[in-house]
User: Fold this.
Amino acid sequence: MTDTSYARERWDPDENGQLDDIVLPAVKLFRMERMDNDHWWIGLYTEDERQIHLDITMDQAGIQVTKREDTELT
Assistant:
């Protein structure tokens, strides 16, 4: 098992402002689902009860990633 106790949460953009590098320690559940040929959805459920969702889509401009965080758990 890898020691991640030193890791801090980071959501870093690239030089164009697009989401590029993610560090998210203490994820208790990772879920990824293909929604369409050009759309993937990722759900990250953290140990502190946050739900973070990433939508990854491909269009003419390239790969786009949108992050959103749910404030209410279901």
Q: What stands out?
A: Residues 1 and 26 are 13 Å apart (CA to CA).
